[in-house]
Design brief:
about 325 residues, alpha/beta, about 15% strand, globular
Length: about 325
């Protein structure tokens, strides 16, 4: 029973951030009361092996929807093959001033400048520890806004060390446009130094804990061809386990003239689809199957997901598509892929 078309007008009448919180709370009520079994279809597993992990199916939830790990079980009930939580930072932080989340329904798009608002990694790990979820769980880590960019690696090392024992994989987020200078970490020697330090620490943790947790790098869609090639070479050189392409875009080309086009922040949804697919295709040409690609950006239909897979991705993630299409999007993609 697809109730979302009935609920969406009500949710869209609310402030976007309020609607976000209300939706998550409703999902949690549905899950704890068992109503989710009536509201959401039961999906047939279509297992896929990527990064040494077995995913229930190829469609996952992108980071950002559940920053603190408070709704893992409620979101898993929607049928995702994997869940990614975060972005989480070493210390709690409030994020940027409100308003910081904007809908552009005419474009099936969202602009956000949330700024890694979260309760800190210790809270997130408590939530993970108490969750019965047994599927693939990614933990997306970032740096605190007041950590100097020259010390950013220290924050990522804290996140990696703390998350390692509970994560299925760990995502290094260097591509959010909403933390000052963060995207600088994708460039030149900055990304090389970061990847090298984290890879070294990953192998230390593997020896200490007796398990290997894949490391994934999340990159922006606003990279030129040379930057894509540079990152691909580093992924291969340092044996990084996966790459997520892509985060949100700072471009406003496809929403030019919209009343909200001048709002700062990352643009997601349909307008980023084509550029994200371009990055996936560029990475696939360089990586030649040696590093799996998780595609995110503008997936609002099965055709969009198929486009990403055809471009070279092994898995896909959704966020904005879920806001506009609801849980039926997950069911459709799983059924039709």
């Amino acid at each position: 029973m697809n109730l979302y078309p009935l609920l969406r007008p009500l949710l869209f009448s609310l402030d976007p951030e309020t609607a976000h919180e209300v939706t998550l709370k409703l999902l949690k009520i549905a899950q704890t009361t068992g109503l989710n079994r009536l509201a959401f279809p039961t999906l047939i597993d279509k297992p896929i092996q990527v990064m040494g992990l077995t995913f229930k199916n190829a469609i996952g939830l992108a980071a950002g929807l559940d920053k603190n790990g408070d709704y893992i079980d409620a979101l898993a009930a929607l049928g995702f093959g994997f869940i990614e939580i975060g972005t989480v930072t070493p210390r709690p932080q409030p994020g940027n001033p409100k308003p910081r989340l904007f809908r552009l329904p005419e474009h099936n798009a969202i602009i956000n400048r949330m700024g890694f608002n979260n309760l800190g990694i210790d809270h997130l790990l408590q939530q993970v520890a108490h969750s019965p979820y047994q599927g693939v769980l990614g933990i997306n880590i970032g740096k605190n806004f007041d950590t100097p960019i020259t010390n950013a690696v220290d924050d990522y090392l804290i996140g990696l060390r703390k998350a390692y024992s509970l994560a299925s994989y760990i995502t290094i987020n260097v591509s959010s446009p909403n933390t000052q200078n963060l995207r600088q970490l994708q460039q030149g020697d900055e990304v090389k130094n970061l990847i090298a330090r984290l890879k070294e620490e990953q192998l230390i943790l593997q020896r200490q804990q007796g398990r290997y947790v894949p490391l994934v790098l999340k990159i922006a869609p606003d990279l030129n061809d040379e930057e894509i090639r540079h990152i691909a070479r580093l992924l291969l050189e340092y044996a990084i386990d996966g790459v997520i392409a892509t985060n949100t875009t700072i471009s406003r080309e496809l929403i030019a003239g919209h009343a909200l086009a001048k709002e700062t922040g990352g643009l997601s949804g349909a307008p980023v689809r084509e550029q994200s697919t371009y990055v996936v295709r560029g990475l696939a040409a360089e990586l030649k199957g040696n590093v799996p690609i998780i595609a995110a950006g503008g997936i609002l239909s099965t055709a969009d997901a198929q486009e990403k897979l055809a471009a070279g991705a092994s898995l896909v993630q959704v966020y904005s598509g879920l806001i506009y299409r609801g849980p039926q999007l997950v069911a459709d993609v799983v059924k039709e892929l």
